[in-house]
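Continuing the batch. This is chain 6 of the set; chains 1 through 5 are on the previous pages. Same settings as before, nothing changed between runs. Recording input and output for traceability.
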Amino acid sequence: MEIEFIKKNNFRKEQRIKQILAKRGDHPGMVHIFSAMEPCATYKPWHDKKSHRTFLKPDQSKCLHYYFYFIDELLGLCYVRVPSWCPFRLQIYFNGHNWLAAQLRKRNIGYELIDNLFISIQDFNTAQDIADNIKVSLIHKRLDRFAEQFCPVIKNFNLTYHWSIMQAEYATDIVFKYRKDLEAIYGHLSRTAIHVVKPENVATPLCYSAWNACYLLWLEN
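Output for chain 6:
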């Protein structure tokens, strides 16, 4: 597998991964590796003239980063962003929809997932219970495994990572059981969304949630 170096700022990694997956399939394993020069946290040597001490001082610079895209059997499509300079601050992405889909498969509960959207689940109550009882400790163990695999240099320092959330998105999709219930209000909801959400506000959290809420689905009885 060759490492693809990203030269352009407007390069969309997600689109490239989508093209690769269309040929590769969605079985677990490595998908692709990108590299790019990006800002990073690092250190610089510093000498204090008053104390006559020389030490490392936190600094900001730019270094080569690697993006490892892979499909995990539990978390689905993930990536690990690894800087090549110390202190090797990792960034890991995964989608909770994929985790829930894996849990549903274990329980033989049917579902249909299109991109990032469940359009049907055989047992909504059980799916909600599963989502409500997600164990953060299990996720942390998975992330620790990714860190050891894609940034093995941490073993030389006998260190482990403290994981924190950088960005989280919550699904606000509304699912209707009967099509006729949606038809009664669909026109009003779609017109309201068009008039209320302006192009310059699409990126704001409130309007993003409003757009998500406009994915109105129904399950035929």
